[in-house]
Structures are given as structure tokens and as C-alpha cells.
Amino acid sequence: MAKRKHNTQNDDAEQKQEKDKPQEKAEDKTVIAGEGEQDEEEQSFEELGLDSRLIRALSKKSIEKPTPIQRVAIPLILEGKDVVARAKTGSGKTFAYLLPLLQKLFADSPSKKSSAPAAFILVPTRELCQQVYSEAMSLIELCRVQLKVVQLTSTMSPSDLKTSLAGFPDIIVSTPACVQTCLSSGMLQARALQESLSVLVLDEADLLLSYGYEDDLKALTAHVPKRCQCLLMSATSSADVEKLKKLILHNPYILTLPEVGDVKDDIIPKNVQQFYISCSARDKLVHILALLKLELVQKKVLIFANSIDMSFRLKLFFEQFGIKSAVLNAELPQNSRLHILEEFNAGLFDYLIATDVSQTAEEHNDKESRAPRKKSKKHSKRKLDAEFGVVRGIDFKNVHTVVNFEMPQTAAGYVHRIGRTGRAYNTGASVSLVSPEEMEIFEEIKSLLGESDSVDSKFIAPFPLLSKNAVESLRYRAEDVARSVTKIAVRESRAQDLRNEILNSEKLKAHFQDNPKDLDLLKHDKVLSKNAPAQHLRDVPEYLLDPTTQEASKIVKLARAAMGNPSSTRRKGFRGKFKRSRDPLKTFSAEGPKRPHGAGMKRKGKNQDDGN
Ligand SMILES: Nc1ncnc2c1ncn2[C@@H]1O[C@H](COP(=O)(O)OP(=O)(O)OP(=O)(O)O)[C@@H](O)[C@H]1O
């Protein structure tokens, strides 16, 4: 293994750390990843001491070199240290713990087969359970080793939970509440766990407490053996993370990225360019229509709204213009949600409208969601899934643009939303539509990011590609269609979508048990409106397009072509090739009087179906 060069604030203490001496005074060891170390940039997975099987598996996933957090975390975890890793969204934290965890279990298996698991990976939401489970399974399959991973969630029946545990899994991916249910019901033997548990991971640790898992985690710590290695992964640092650190870890290494020290630097990926458009709440529909229909943003696009009704309003509105989209929200059955995510990740559709309905700690504490539902609640209001989390931590693949149709309620929510693009070595952009009523939260976000005159991506700049003319050219049609999307139409389509998805959900479950790779079974972006979209609204006629907008759209398309097919594999070595000077969002202004390059080019009407 190559010699690591870490900036360790407390090298002496490092020597003293011993896992079986938890009574030792806890002393933080802060390691700053890659600070001033040129050669660390070049470090390979091999040099970090990673097993060749895992390296081959990564290579098959087109992952060739570690991210900064992986460079520092992997060797420390392999050495058996407790680690707190704080790194921004999309920085590759999952592999930072999963790779060394699997490697350790490769070494133990099959000699140490036990009746209880060797590792717990605890996450706040069911979506994350599925995501981490899939990543782990895929690595294990590619490495062809005998390790068993199961995911346990609170929607599983006691008999399903028992069946999953009966196969003696090596790794359990679950939420703290579900593990606690298994322990208190005796499905998981606390005594066996004392013998077997060697690694405990708390992923998305900054969210675990706000999702109401404090009591479950406290109860769990009693069963975690002292020699168990504990890893805590988080996108932000917060009082909750500190609390968890004290509760579970023994004298851990604190890993941070170089620019840490300031919240804003800590959390915003540098490769996301952030933009805003100021407009009235009423004008948001025409603005988003212009962005999508005139192709001024790159696909795939993740659009955030603040309510489920607004999501369906958007979907119905888009449908009339031939723009197909799917809605993802907490009301849908879990199988449907997972399937929507998989289809979107596989590139089956380009526009996903997500609702990150904010759920209070009270809702999350609602234990009812963890216990079997009472039949008498038949007529109660539709319940949102308390373990649903669409924004936090979910790895949407190849999202190029995040649009905040409505601004999130908190600055932290904004950070997590825009963190769905620009993941790992990819680039992305975000466009926020800000109404006067949302100015307060917008100012809060700006002060979190830091006001700056520079064009640095941390600064939210006005979106340069959308001209007033372009918006006005679509206004009449947009307002006409918006009027037809009534509250009743929204309610009906929302109910229709839910009915479809409930029916599909069982089919999906059965189908995917037999055909785990088959994604194209039931598409989620089908038209919901009763009236078929009018043909004339699908096409933007030539006379409505001004040359500046045409040029902007052309540049966005060229940029997309330069980046390769966004829906296919990850673009290797893209970073650095697409420099700021060639970046249309940095160099083009729709309001400016720049002449289009091809001034004499023939003007074409846009005849597009933005669906699939
Ligand atoms: N070394 C790497 N090179 C290229 N891509 C990577 C690398 N490591 C991870 N990725 C990819 O980067 C994406 C983001 O990784 P991951 O989900 O682990 O981020 P994260 O830090 O957990 O983000 P969040 O805080 O939002 O959950 C994933 O698609 C993952 O496959």
C-alpha cells in the first residue's frame, strides 16, 4: 500500500487508539482529505489497499479512481478505525464505506459463519435501503463471493422479516426502527449480535435523528459490542451528527474535504452551476414551459415542487405540450416509487417531478408506520410514507438539471435538492424559479452560500439563456392551458395515478421477483389528462422563436452532444474537458445583443416530442 499523507492534527493520539479501550478519553483526530497533496490526486484504488476483485468490479462500473473522501476513508476503515466522514452530496460516500466493509467480510467469510449478521448499515429511508442494498449486491455479484445481504424495512410482515433473517445474512441494510423491531421481538438475537457484529455504519447520519430514530439508536447501542467498528457518514455537520458521534463512536477519525471549515464550502458541490429566475408565482408555469419546451436546460431534469397537487398540476400542464413526465411522491406504493426511480435512472424518461414534502419529526416518530396498520383506519386520510425520502441521499443517475419550480422551505433542503446533480465527477446545473414571496428563503440560501461577485459556481447567478421574448412568445398558450388544469382535474388525475400505481405495484412486485432486471414493464410517464393533448400545442411554431432563443437552445444541444449521451454510461474523463470558456451557461446571455454564430442559418420550427 502506498504511504498515505494525511494532515493529522493529532498523530500521537492515533497511536494510542485501541478499539477495546472505549474508556479512553475521546479525542477527535481530524483528517483533511487531500489538502495540498498533489500526488494524492493520482492515488489509485490499488494503492489504497483495495482487493483486486473489488477493483475489477469497480472498473466494470466505469469507476477507475477514488474520490477524495474515498482516498482517505478506505485505508482508515481497512485499518479498523472508527470514522466520521463528512463530505458533500454526491462525493461518493457510499463506496467510501461499502468497499472496505465488503473487503473485511471477504476475508472473514465463510470461516466465521454466524447466526447473526457481521455488519449493519443503517439509513433513514426505505429508498436508501434499496439503493445501498443494490450497490452492495451488485459489487458482491461482480466479485463472485459468497456474502449474503438482506434489506429489512418496516413494511415487511413479521414472517417476511423472519424469512430474510433465516438465511443468516452477513450484512443487514435497514432503518434503525426496523432493526429495533427485530431485536425486541427476538427475531434478531441480541446475544448472537454481541458475538457477531463487527461493523456498524450509520449512513446519512445527519438525517437519522430528524427522522425520529433517536430512541431506536439508543436502544441499539446496548447491543453493539465494544470492539465493533463504527462508521458515520454524513453530508453536513450538525448538532445531530455530534450527538450520534458521542452516542456510538469511540475516539473516531473525523474526515473532511479540504475546503471544510465553512458550512457553505462543506456542502455545495463545486461542479453544480446554480441559477435563478425571478418571476411571479403565476408566471412560473410559462417560465418552466419555456425552459423545457425551448430546450434551454439539459436533460435529464429533476423538477421539485412543494406539494403533491402541484406536482400533478405540472404533469397535466406539461402533457398538453407533449412533454411527458412522471411524478414521484410519498403517497405512492413503495414498489412503484422504486420502479419510477429505476426507470428514471435507466433513462426511460427525461423529466421527473418530485415532491419532497417536508415531514416533521412528529410524523417520523409516528410509530404507527412501523406497526401493522389497523384495518379500521380504512377511511382515514391517505397516509404519507414516514420512511420516504426522495431527496436526501438518493442517487439519481445522470441528472443534468435540477429545477426548483417552488423553492424549498429551508436552505438545507436546497442543498440536498441541488445535490441530486453534479454527482461524483459529473457536472450539473440548477435553476430556481423565485417569486417575490420566496425572496426570504432565497436570501437565506444566498447567505448560506456566500454572496460573491465572482462567477464561481457557489454563487447563484441569473439564468442567462431565457429571454423575455421567449417567455412572452409562449405566454398566451401557457395561460390558456394553465386555466384548463383545474383543481378538480388535478385531484382526479392524482387519484387516477394512485389507483394505477396500486394496481401496478403488486404486478411489479411479482414481476421483479422473477425478472429483476426488467425495467420496461410499466411506464410511469403515461398521459393522465382526459383530453388528448392538442397537436398544435406540441409544436412551437417557427414564428414564435426568436433567433436568440434558437441560438441558446442550439448551444445547450451542442453542449449535450459534447458530453455524450446523458442516459447511457457515465462519461469518463469528462471533468476538465468541458471548460468554462465552452460552457454556454457561462458565456451566453439571452438578453445580450450577441449575434448568433449562424446568422444566416435557416430558421426551423421546433417539432419535438419531449417525451420518449
Ligand atoms: N470513485 C468514483 N468515481 C466515479 N463515480 C463514483 C465514484 N464513487 C462513487 N461514484 C458515483 O457517484 C455517485 C454519487 O455517490 P454516492 O451516492 O455515494 O454519493 P454520496 O456522497 O453518498 O451523496 P449523498 O450525500 O447525496 O448521499 C454514484 O452514482 C456513484 O456510483
Automatic annotation (TrEMBL):
<dbReference type="InterPro" id="IPR014001">
    <property type="entry name" value="Helicase_ATP-bd"/>
</dbReference>
<feature type="short sequence motif" description="Q motif">
    <location>
        <begin position="43"/>
        <end position="71"/>
    </location>
</feature>
<keyword id="KW-0067">ATP-binding</keyword>
<dbReference type="Pfam" id="PF00270">
    <property type="entry name" value="DEAD"/>
</dbReference>
<keyword id="KW-0347">Helicase</keyword>
<dbReference type="GO" id="GO:0003723">
    <property type="term" value="F:RNA binding"/>
</dbReference>
<dbReference type="GO" id="GO:0005829">
    <property type="term" value="C:cytosol"/>
</dbReference>
<dbReference type="Pfam" id="PF00271">
    <property type="entry name" value="Helicase_C"/>
</dbReference>
<feature type="region of interest" description="Disordered">
    <location>
        <begin position="562"/>
        <end position="612"/>
    </location>
</feature>
<dbReference type="GO" id="GO:0003724">
    <property type="term" value="F:RNA helicase activity"/>
</dbReference>
<keyword id="KW-0547">Nucleotide-binding</keyword>
<dbReference type="InterPro" id="IPR014014">
    <property type="entry name" value="RNA_helicase_DEAD_Q_motif"/>
</dbReference>
<dbReference type="InterPro" id="IPR027417">
    <property type="entry name" value="P-loop_NTPase"/>
</dbReference>
<protein>
    <recommendedName>
        <fullName>RNA helicase</fullName>
        <ecNumber>3.6.4.13</ecNumber>
    </recommendedName>
</protein>
<feature type="compositionally biased region" description="Basic and acidic residues">
    <location>
        <begin position="362"/>
        <end position="371"/>
    </location>
</feature>
<feature type="region of interest" description="Disordered">
    <location>
        <begin position="1"/>
        <end position="46"/>
    </location>
</feature>
<feature type="region of interest" description="Disordered">
    <location>
        <begin position="362"/>
        <end position="382"/>
    </location>
</feature>
<dbReference type="InterPro" id="IPR011545">
    <property type="entry name" value="DEAD/DEAH_box_helicase_dom"/>
</dbReference>
<feature type="compositionally biased region" description="Basic residues">
    <location>
        <begin position="595"/>
        <end position="605"/>
    </location>
</feature>
<dbReference type="GO" id="GO:0016787">
    <property type="term" value="F:hydrolase activity"/>
</dbReference>
<keyword id="KW-0694">RNA-binding</keyword>
<dbReference type="InterPro" id="IPR001650">
    <property type="entry name" value="Helicase_C-like"/>
</dbReference>
<dbReference type="GO" id="GO:0005524">
    <property type="term" value="F:ATP binding"/>
</dbReference>
<feature type="compositionally biased region" description="Basic residues">
    <location>
        <begin position="569"/>
        <end position="580"/>
    </location>
</feature>
<feature type="compositionally biased region" description="Basic residues">
    <location>
        <begin position="372"/>
        <end position="382"/>
    </location>
</feature>
<dbReference type="InterPro" id="IPR050079">
    <property type="entry name" value="DEAD_box_RNA_helicase"/>
</dbReference>
<feature type="domain" description="Helicase ATP-binding">
    <location>
        <begin position="74"/>
        <end position="255"/>
    </location>
</feature>
<feature type="domain" description="DEAD-box RNA helicase Q">
    <location>
        <begin position="43"/>
        <end position="71"/>
    </location>
</feature>
<feature type="compositionally biased region" description="Acidic residues">
    <location>
        <begin position="36"/>
        <end position="46"/>
    </location>
</feature>
<keyword id="KW-0378">Hydrolase</keyword>
<feature type="compositionally biased region" description="Basic and acidic residues">
    <location>
        <begin position="13"/>
        <end position="30"/>
    </location>
</feature>
<feature type="domain" description="Helicase C-terminal">
    <location>
        <begin position="271"/>
        <end position="471"/>
    </location>
</feature>
<comment type="similarity">
    <text>Belongs to the DEAD box helicase family. DDX56/DBP9 subfamily.</text>
</comment>
